[in-house]
Amino acid sequence: MIERIRISLWDVFSFFLTGFLAAAAIVVLVVAYGPLSPRELADALVQVPAAVVIVAAPLALTLFGLVIEPFANYFDRFVMKALFGWLIRPKAKHSDEEEILAEEIKTNYLGSLCGKISNPYAICKDCVETKQLSTTFMVFLSRYGFYRNCAFLSVASGIAVAILSGSRLMSIVAVIASVVVAVVFKRRAEDFYSYMAPTVYRAFLIDKLKWSPHQQNEDAAPPRRGQA
Questions:
Q1: Looking at CB atoms within 10 Å, which of 2, 48, 93, 221 has the fewest?
Q2: Is 134's pLDDT higher than 70?
Q3: 3 state SS of 162
Q4: In-domain check, residue 49
């Protein structure tokens, strides 16, 4: 049964690594403001059985990431985009390419649905996944999810430091720094998000287009002598 479990890049980047970073941030906060010293923490970690580190720890970190992900999603949707949307717009060249490819697909390659679907991304993505035409877009999707979650963790860590530090100056610096870092993470996430749709559309079109360069060259060649 275990061999049937499939692990995707999304699971690794958006869940496991998110859980790992969140756990690391909690450990740093506990050492900095809690009762444990770095030496005591190191001694406690050394005593953890190897089986727990190899099996239980990855599962626990993935579960932790699964719990964090919806909060990161809603934080991104209702806070980051509302406050910093003007700073995190996708690159224009990717938007232009996406529109051109989408229009070509909507007009010519959806069969009886041509002209009836305003956004062909979902059906093209399903086609690319079903026929296994490309997996490149999953790399972009997983990195988008990872950096989006990092933006949430950055702000959450800054707020935690502001609460635990007990210093007004430290609180202000921590919050401002965390927001700046979150904007950088979110900007990078949007870069990867803007790569996804053009990648899906290109894979879809490559499968649908009939490439015949030899025939095209023959059609474009001038007629020989005696042929008119």
A1: 2
A2: yes
A3: helix
A4: yes
| Angstrom distance (rounded) from CA 194 to CA 90 | 6
The token pair at 172 is 């202000």
Task: Judge whether 159 and 177 are in contact, CB under 8 Å.
Answer: no
Largest Cα–Cα distance in the chain? 96
Q: How many domains does the chain have?
A: 1
**Res. 91 pLDDT band, cuts 50 70 90:** low
**Structural domain contains residue 214:** no
Pair 25, 76: CB distance under 8 Å: no
Segments forming the whole domain that contains residue 145? 2-209
Asked whether residue 59 is domain-assigned, the answer is yes
Interacting residues of 84 by C-beta distance below 8 A, sequence separation 6+: 183, 186
Using alpha carbons, select from 114, 101, 136, 132 the residue that is nearest to residue 209.
Answer: 101
The answer to whether the CB of 20 falls within 8 A of the CB of 57 is no
Q: Is residue 224 part of a domain?
A: no
% pLDDT > 90, the chain: 47
Return all residues near 106 (Cβ < 8 A) that are at least 6 apart.
114, 115, 117, 118, 120
Written as six digits, the tokens of 43 are: 């001694």
Tell me if the pTM is above 0.85. Answer: no
- Tell me the C-alpha distance between 180 and 170, whole Å: 15
